[in-house]
Amino acid sequence: KTDEARITSPLQHANIVSIYEFDQVDGQYYLAMEHVHGRDLQRVMARANKLGRTIPDDLALYVTGEVCKALWYAYNARDNHGNPLRIIHRDVSPSNILISFDGEVKVTDFGVAKAANSTREASGGLKGKLGYMAPEQVKGGEVDHRSDLFALGIILFESLTLKRLFMGRTDLQTLINVRDADVEKRLARHPEIAAPVAEILRKALARVPDKRFRNATELLNAIQDCLFQRNRRVGPEHVAGLMHDLFAEEAEQEILPLEIEEVTEVGRSLGGSPATALPAPPRTGQTPTPKAPDPSESTPPPADQTPPAPADGRPPAPTPRRQAAPAPPTDESIPLDESAEPPQGTTRATRISPMESSFAIRDATGKVFGPVSFANFLSLVKSRAISEDEMCSMNGGEWIRVGEVAAIRAEISETRAEDARRSVLFEGAVERRLLIRVVCDVTREKRLTGLLQFRQGSRHKQVYFRDGRVRFIRSNLRDELIGEFLRRKGLVSEDQLASALASPDDSQAKRIGDSLLAKGVLKPHELADLLQEQFRRRFLDLFQWDGGWYGFFEGASPPRGCVSSDLDAISTLAEAVRTLYPPDLCRAWLSDYLTRRLVLVEAAKVPVSDLMLVPKELRVVNLIDQHPSVTHLLRTVPQTQEWQAIVYRMVFLLIQCGTYQFRGLAGAYR
After folding, report:
1. Rounded distance, CA 461 to CA 454, Å?
2. What average pLDDT does the segment 91-100 reach?
3. How far apart are CA 174 and CA 134, in angstroms?
4. Within a 13 Å sphere around the CA of 156, how many CA atoms are in the beta-carbon half?
5. Given strand 459-466, what is the order of strands in its sheet?
6. Which one, 170, 426, 516, 529, has least CB within 10 Å?
């Protein structure tokens, strides 16, 4: 338990059961963990087998993909010092995969996990369950993250067939089956497994680790590609439908009847039908066929289905649950009868196709943007310039949530799925005082490639880095769109901007830029300079944020087709502090250290020369060696408000960049 607490406590991910507390009482250790109201996958498979049901292959693939997210995150997570944890679970099995009645999938029990900084010995016996080990495990060889993927391949096979893959009559026979890993022999017995799914199984269950998927993300991508090629869209609501189907009594006992009635009355989504719980989607073209028992395959034993009672003996208190929303209807299901429900993609009180309509968007402050064409509206959704919680109006009609527009549900689902696929490397609360430190960590300390994402209420901003340099910035702030930027510059009129927004071309920047070039208003190099200026201003605006959330997603790439740039973030820091940080704030942040001696950090990642300081700022920096405290500096410079402001700002900047530090407080004040 101590090892599990130490390894798992830093992990905070939607697909991993959280540990809230670890302590001991009367010499006995205990873990306080997140409660998942549902069943483990072993019990799900046992119940399906007992009832003569199957688990649809789409759902089996989806659950496997969710586990991939947990394994990828655990392996790529870092500790509080930024050191990679490289956690290998080593006991990936159905009993350690929990599925809630709401369709959540979570991995638990890292009791035998191995981390890069672990002090435990890897030897001393087999770790995990025999039937879910990899060949290298049973042979006592090197175990890495690909061993977890092999176990996950076993679980996918068993979810599809409800048959044990390698379990033999004895432990020795099981070890031999795992060692040989004869997957083709077992796939031949199950022709109902679709060819693309069988290919995923073959690669996941390769005997040699080098022939398997390289990492959990690669397996996840293969699963998502398979679902996409088969035109399948699966989400938590479908998993919830399966759980309610298999465990109807346990799942429904905590639902309040009143909420069901309210959902039926007011839960109609735009262009849809009343929101009700979805049954699990059937596996097309597949009918369970009884097979003769095979000695190398055994059926998972039925699990006890009685829900556990609370420790104090009291009945569980009812907790309201939200019913799952229906999936959008397919094109084949669109009714042609005018008296029927409106087709997908229409809105209340209108039958005009959204593709031929204009949209206005209203943000949380009440500011209205638009009207824009449907193509532009869709582009703004895809780029997250507008969120599903903001309000929109089609053709001047009533205001509704963007997320209620049926015609863009697929795009919203895609953005959710994309966000879910990402695993955060580090995160925190946005504090204006610490933003410079965060930027320096990404750009110079670690030179990371990925996405630094910021959220503050309805405001969203995404900064993509490559090797520590800013390459692309996405923002949902209206004033930062290219059209608004050029309009404020006086280079585009209101009519020109309105014409570009109403155009079906989804590239506003391209259309406006081409128009300005064609009319001779701008030359190509002038337009390039303007775009770079807009890019820089988007980045500088971040240093005015105070409050909200930020997180870094390693390896994330800018969206395809975007116009990338190249910005050295460090060169903007002095400008940000000079123009956006009031000297009184800098003084307040430094107030406890005014008499502390300033010391230059040897081999600093951010040298003074990279900060692009102006002459007066450089003069203050040059005075530090002779007057190495804020108090001494203030007495040395001219006694004006301007010079005092420069001192406070420069000392604050140098400390946050890690160029200087206060003696005796190395790394403590940042």
Report:
1. 5
2. 92
3. 11
4. 32
5. 426-429, 549-554, 450-456, 459-466, 469-475
6. 170
Please give the Cα distance from 570 to 283 (Å, whole number).
54
pLDDT in tens, 587-635: 999 998 999 999 999 888 899 989 989 999 999 999 998 899 999 999 9
In the predicted structure, residue 179 carries a pLDDT above the cut 60: yes
Do the Cβ atoms of 166 and 154 come closer than 8 Å? Answer: yes
| CA 229 to chain CA centroid, nearest Å | 23
Q: Residue 325: pLDDT above 80?
A: no
Of 153, 156, 162, the C-alpha closest to 291 is 162
Q: Which H helix or E strand runs over 644?
A: helix 641-656
CB 93 within 8 Å of CB 108: no
Distance between CA atoms of residues 504 and 420, nearest Å = 30
Backbone conformation region of residue 525, classed left if phi is above 0, alpha if psi is from -120 to 50, else beta: alpha
Distance separating alpha carbons of residues 590 and 653, to the nearest angstrom: 11
Q: Are strands 426-429 and 400-401 parallel, antiparallel or unpaired?
A: unpaired
Residue 53 corresponds to which tokens in the numbers above? Answer: 């049901």
SS3 of 351, please?
coil
Centre a 10 Å sphere on the Cβ of residue 329 and count the other Cβ atoms it contains: 16
pLDDT of residue 69: 94
Residue 375 vs residue 521, higher pLDDT:
375
Between 570-580 and 524-541, two packed helices, what is the crossing angle to 10 degrees? Answer: 70
What strands lie across the sheet with 38-40, from one edge to the other?
38-40, 97-100, 105-107
Q: What is the pLDDT of residues 478-537, one digit of tens each?
A: 677 766 777 777 776 777 666 655 544 444 455 566 666 666 666 776 777 777 888 888
Task: Give the C-alpha separation, 222 to 220, whole Å.
Answer: 5
Give the Cβ contact number of residue 605 at 10 Å.
Answer: 18
Q: What is the DSSP string of 57-103?
A: HHHHHHHHHHHHHHHHHHHH-B-TTS-B---B-S---GGGEEEETTS
Residue 131: which of 99, 111, 153 has the closest Cα?
A: 153
Q: How confident is the model at residue 347 (pLDDT cuts 50, 70, 90)?
A: very low
If you average pLDDT over every residue of the chain, what do you get? 76
In the numeric block, which tokens belong to residue 206? 């390769």
Distance CA 435, CA 430 (A): 7
Residue 270: the pLDDT is 28
Q: How far apart are CA 32 and CA 21, in angstroms?
A: 5
Q: Which residues pair with 475 in a beta bridge?
A: 461
Strand order in the sheet with 358-362: 368-373, 358-362, 391-394, 400-401
**Torsion angles phi and psi, residue 25, rounded to 5:** -130, 120
3-state helix, strand, coil in the chain (%, to 5): 45, 15, 45
The alpha carbon dihedral of 428, 417, 222, 100 has a sign of positive
223, two tokens: 């699963």
**Whole-number Cα distances in Å, 619 to 5, 384, 385, 606, 613:** 52, 44, 42, 18, 10
pLDDT, average across residues 656-665: 87
Please state, in angstroms and as integers, the Cα–Cα distance from residue 399 to each residue in 269, 394, 403, following that order.
14, 8, 12
- pLDDT of residue 340 exceeding 70, the answer is no
